Amino acid sequence: MLVQIHTDKNIEGGSRFSEFFSNEIKNELARFDEIVTRIEVHVSDENGNKTTPNDKKCVIEARVEKKQPIAVTATSDSPEKAFYEALEKIQRVLDSTLDKIKEH
């Protein structure tokens, strides 16, 4: 599974940031290796440098073999919280997708 991390200009997304998020995804989504070919994570600050509640957004898109891409979005007051909320959401969606694949 290929993991790509993208940040906007308002989020400090150095190599440690990318490496940490990539490792978390690989650990949490390892059971989906057989169906997921790529995961893309997009982390952004919706309001630039202004501090407002829930202005950090994380979109996680999973590319599933022979299916349309699946995307989830989460917002929070920090990039890390938004990431973990989105990670939980994508796990639930992938679980149900895997169940549907196994039924057919």
UniProtKB/TrEMBL annotation:
The keyword Ligase does not apply. This is Sigma 54 modulation protein / S30EA ribosomal protein. Pfam families: Ribosomal_S30AE. The lineage of its organism: Bacteria, Pseudomonadati, Bacteroidota, Flavobacteriia, Flavobacteriales. Keywords: Ribonucleoprotein, Ribosomal protein. The keyword NAD does not apply. It comes from the Bacteria. One of its GO terms (cellular component) is ribosome.
